[in-house]
Amino acid sequence: MKGALYIVATPIGNLGDISQRAIDILKQVDLIAAEDTRHSKILLNHFAISTNVSAYHEHNEKQVTEKLIQELLNGKSIALISDAGTPLINDPGYKLVTAAHDNLVKVVPIPGVSAVITALSVSGLPVNRFSFEGYLPAKVEARRKHLQSIANETRTLVFYETPHRIVEVIKEMQEIFGDERQVTIARELTKQFEQLVRDKLSVIGEKLKDETIKIKGEFVVIVEGVTENQMDKAEVLRINKILSGKLSPSDAASLTAKISGRRKNEVYQMVLDQDKVDNPD
Ligand code: SAM
Fold first, then answer.
1. Mean model confidence pLDDT for the chain
2. Ligand 1 atom closest to Cα of residue 191
3. Which residues does ligand 1 sit against, CB inside 6 Å?
4. CATH assignment of 4-113?
5. DSSP 209-258
6. What is the pLDDT of residue 140?
7. How much distance in Å is there from the Cα of 234 to the middle of ligand 1?
8. Which CATH superfamily does the domain covering 116-223 fall into?
9. pLDDT of 47
10. Per-residue pLDDT for 200 more than 60?
11. What value does the mean pLDDT take over residues 8-12?
12. In the chain, what are the domain boundaries?
């Protein structure tokens, strides 16, 4: 096992989800590079793994990458782990893996859990084609812009979210994707208070408000893509506005529904919602 970099997945909650191969590799390598050494010690102690651990995180990535590559070139074997799940999936490691390839160091995956795949597998939404979006931008403007840019995506969308932003983000998604999009909220996967809720965006918003969905812990948000015969909200409103100039509100909504693949009630609701946004008083 000399001179290889192992990318080792660890559990996202339930320690029973680690693989035997992961335990064996973590015991056998010369060094474990961990995102947070104190956090990882809990996992390593649990499995009686006494290998040396050193820190590898986003703030020291550059210097440590050079040092680790040197060790790998000297024939040492190193395992990279993150705080939870699969390294590099919204976690550090990209620089190290790239540098290992550049230096012709063998890179070996030790696969296991990742919140994105775990959530998709139980989402009840189409999973054969999906777009993993990770965390949305922190700033409201950038976030809304990003949501707009993916509003017409036909693949299922997967987001990582935190409790402080989940309510705001669902509200923004409702505004931008429309009320009817199906969403699955996967909270605290594999943990004691695991919760899975699948419903349309407007209902998910309500369930967060009344705390049927607890605003605590870790979240994966899975959003249905636009179905092929559905248009996004902005386009529906644009068509309805043109038709409203020539037809009665009811006829305009009927025709818009037909063109856009939406239901007439949905078109009415979109017009009402937009009206509230345009005329808040
Ligand atoms: N590397 C990890 C993976 O493979 O999933 C992801 C690390 S990222 C820094 C942490 C985010 O993953 C959390 O904010 C949450 O969105 C998601 N996550 C991690 N564990 C989770 C769990 N048990 N239940 C739901 N989401 C989880």
1. 94
2. 23
3. 12-13, 82, 84-86, 89-91, 114-116, 160-162, 186, 188-191, 218-220
4. 3.40.1010.10
5. HTTSS-S-S-EEEEEPPPPTT---HHHHHHHHHHHHTTS-HHHHHHHHHH
6. 95
7. 32
8. Tetrapyrrole methylase, C-terminal domain (3.30.950.10)
9. 98
10. yes
11. 98
12. 4-113, 116-223, 228-278
